[in-house]
Amino acid sequence: MERIQNYYNCGIDSYFADDFKKALIYFTQAINIDNENPNLYLKRAYTYNKLNMRLDAIADLKQGLLAAERNPNELGIKYRIMVQIGQWCLEDKMYEDSYKFLSAAKIINESDRELDDLLMKLKGLGFYSIDNKSGSKDRDSTNKFVKPRYDYYQNESYINIDVYVKNVKDEDLDVQITPNSLTVDIEFNINNPMKLEIDHLMGDIIPEESFFYLKPTKIEIKLKKATPGMAWSKLEGDITERSENNQKIRYPSSSSKAKNWEALEKEIEKEDSVKETNSDISALFSKIYSDADDDTRRAMIKSYVESNGTALSTNWGEVGKGPVKVQPPKGMEPKSVRTIL
To answer: Residue ranges of the SGS domain (predicted)?
Structure first.
């Protein structure tokens, strides 16, 4: 148990020091000793995610969930794992899996408002249940629909639409959102169904980040703009109008000197490019480790730790012969540090 705790503590320290490759090694060593600890899988999943290895992260969460289900005392961490899987699946547009895990988490904790918001987003995408992916209802095609009264307003990020119909129940409402259209079906009165249908929105939206709320006097719909800061001249528009509307809002500045925003944007893009390169390197080393056999993994851990991070070898035949020497950069002097190995 002491070795597991040491590996765990070092993994946490490395994680918060942004050394995610090293954290991955420590959490893996802890799991190799205790593969029934759901918290270890959760922490390694966070680490995989930081290394842009989302599929590995979700796989670890599912392993942690299985471990938690085998232990009735782990209900709290079981809930955390379910919510995290649901959030990541929603981000990756794996809507069916997201709905499955978030709905299961809702059974454990019915009072979580953040969970309600996530489920509301999925409902806005039509995911009412696993068996009814589209959320659509059978309709008589001969029915005539009444268009409800509505209005809209906008800010930098959202188009907000208020549909004024009172006392609508969840089971009587079907909201379909696509990148450029919106359909709202209301069927609480079978003889007088209502429909708001907008086939061509003035701008593009992001369905997975759009959602709606049911209020006693209205339905509030929030559509996330695909281009934040773009002003819509109206709610609907054809191709020509959409093109003419493609102008961003310009906000006033109190500065007496004009800023070269294009140059600033290029500088930010350059910095992001460097970060992406570093992230790719981290992902490469993590993949090498995850695909390696036991001897290669031992060689990587032993060489990295004993050399104080100055060497990384995959050759156990060489590394296993003795301690790995510190190899500092030219002109620098090595100093001894304590390790847990």
So the answer is: 250-339
Whether 7 and 62 map to the same domain: the answer is: yes
What pTM, to 2 d.p., does this model score? 0.41
Q: Which of 179, 209, 225 is the last residue of a domain?
A: 225
The alpha carbon of 139 is separated from its chain's Cα centroid by a whole number of angstroms, namely: 35
CA 267 centroid distance within chain: 26
Supply the range of the domain harboring residue 158. Answer: 150-225
Determine the residue type at 42: L
Q: How far is CA 319 from CA 43, 287, 310, in A?
A: 29, 21, 14
**Residue 180 or 139, more confident:** 180
Number of domains in the chain: 3
Condensed to tens digits (0 to 9), the pLDDT of residues 265-279 reads 556 666 666 555 555
Q: How far apart are CA 134 and CA 127, in angstroms?
A: 6
Question: Are residue 89 and residue 19 in the same domain, yes or no?
Answer: yes
| Residue 206 covered by a domain | yes
338/326 Cα distance (integer angstroms): 13
- 112 and 5 belong to one structural domain: yes
